[in-house]
Amino acid sequence: MRIAMIGAGYVGLVSGACFADFGHEVCCIDTDQGKIDALVKGQIPIFEPGLDDLVADNVRSGRLTFGTDLYEAVRSASAVFIAVGTPSRRGDGHADLSYVYQAARDIAGAIDGYTVVVTKSTVPVGTGDEVERIIRETRPEAEFAVVSNPEFLREGAAISDFKRPDRIVIGTEDGRAQAVMAELYRPLYLNQAPLVVTSRRTAELTKYAANAFLATKITFINEMADLCEKVGADVRDVARGIGLDKRIGPKFLHAGPGYGGSCFPKDTLALIKTAQDNASPVRLVETVASINDQRKRAMSRKIIAACGGAVRGKTVALLGLTFKPNTDDLRDAPSLTIVTALQDAGARVRAYDPEGMEAARDLLPDVEFSSDPYACAQNADALVIVTEWDVFRALDLGRLRHLLLEPVIVDLRNVYDPQDLQRNGFRYVSVGRP
C-alpha cells in the first residue's frame, strides 16, 4: 500500500520507517528542505535507538523515500498521514493546530481517488472534524475519509512500541476507511496487537487521557517521595508495594525531578484548555501540571541544601540534560529549570550528557560542557545525577571521590544504593529515601 507521511519529524519519521519495514511504500514529506536533504544522505536529525539502521535498510530497499513535493506523494497514496507538530500556542497554552490545518489544505489540492486522511499528530477533540471541513470546502467532489490514529510512542523505545504496540486506536465510523487502516496494520496480526475502533472524537480524547493519566501517576509518586523524606520511609519500597497491585502496575512509579519531554507537558496543558473551553474542567490534571512545574524548581533547592545551603561561587556538575535516557530531547526537561535556578543562586554549572549537549548549547549558553562524566566532576563542589543514562549507573566511585572538591552526590533518579555511597565516603542525597 502507498503511504504519504506529511511531516518528517519524530512521529512521522519513526512511523514512516516502520510502515516501510512492514512492506508498504512510504514517502515522508517535509517543508524543511535541509531536513529532507539530510535524510536523503542518510543523516537522521533525531536520536532514537535503531532508527538510523531502520531508515537505511528501507531506503536501500526502495520502500522509503523523502521529498518536499506533497502533491505527487499524496496523489498516488491510499493513505495520507498528518504527522506535523502541535506545540503549545503562545499566550494561551492551546495546541497550535496551524500546521495540521495547512497540511489539510495541501492534501485537499492533491487527492486523486478515494483517500484515507489519517491524523497521527496529537490533536484536541474535534480537530478531525475541522480537517474534514477544510478538505470538503476545498474539494467538494473529493472521495476521502478522515481518521484519527493517535501515536503512543515512547522516546527511546519508539520502534519497539510501533511494532509491538499495546493497542492501535482507530477513530472512524467509516467502514471503508476502517478496512484501509486494518490493511495498513495487518503485519501486526501475528503480534496480536488489539485494534480499538472508536469514533473519531473518542480516539482524539483517548490520546490526551492516556498522557494525562501517566503524568498523574508520575506526580503522585513524586509527592509520596516528599512525604517519605519527612516520615523516614523509602519511596522505592512504597512504589514496589503498590506497583505489585495489578490494578496499579509498576510503571511510571519512579520518583524523580518531574516529567518533561515533547508530550506530557504540552498534552496536559492542551487537555486542561479543552476541558475549560467545554465547561468541564479537569481539576486533577490542572493540579498535576502545577505540581510538576513547582517540583523542578524544588530540585534545585535540594541541591543547594546538600551543598550546605549556598552555592554562590561553587561549581555544580550535572550528569544528564535530556528529559529521559536514550533521546536527545530537551523539551521541558527538568535540567533546564534546575540549571537556571542554580545559576540564579550564583553557582557555576558544568554538564555532561551522552546525546543532549548539542541542543543544550543553544538553550544553556552559560553552561560549561564536558567530554565525559569524570571531566564533568573534576574540581566540582557537588555532582548531580539528573537523567538516568546507563553510562551513569556504574561510575567509578573511588575516582569520583578523588575528583570532587567536596564528596557530595545528589541523585535525583535514585540510581545508587545509599549504603554504597556512604561506604565510599560520600554525603549522598536522593529522592524519597531517608
Molecular structure report:
The protein has a six-stranded parallel β-sheet, sandwiched between helices. A six-stranded parallel β-sheet has the order 11-10-9-12-13-14. The model has no long low-confidence stretch (mean pLDDT 96). The chain has 434 residues and is an alpha/beta fold. Helix 9 (200-231) crosses helix 11 and helix 12 packs across helix 13 (334-344). Helices cover 44% and strands 14% of the residues. The longest helix has 32 residues, at 200-231. It is elongated and about 75 Å long.
SS class: alpha/beta
**Tally of DSSP helical segments:** 17
End-to-end span in angstroms? Answer: 57 Å
Give average pLDDT, whole number: 96
Radius of gyration: 23 Å
Strand adjacency order, main sheet: 3-2-1-4-5-6
Please tell me what the overall shape is. elongated
What level of helicity do the residues show? 40-55%
Spans of at least 5 consecutive residues with low confidence: none
The number of E-state strands comes to 14
**Largest sheet features:** 6 strands, parallel
Our estimate of the beta-strand percent is 5-15%
What's the arrangement of secondary structure elements?
Elements: E1 2-6, H1 10-21, E2 25-29, H2 33-40, H3 51-61, E3 64-67, H4 70-75, E4 79-82, H5 98-108, E5 115-119, H6 127-138, E6 144-148, H7 158-163, E7 168-171, H8 175-184, E8 195-198, H9 200-231, H10 235-243, H11 264-277, H12 283-306, E9 315-319, H13 334-344, E10 348-352, H14 357-363, E11 368-369, H15 373-377, E12 382-385, H16 397-403, E13 408-411, H17 418-423, E14 427-429
Parallel strand pairs: 1-2, 1-4, 2-3, 4-5, 5-6, 7-8, 9-10, 9-12, 10-11, 12-13, 13-14
Helix pairs in contact: 1-3, 5-6, 9-11, 9-12, 11-12, 12-13
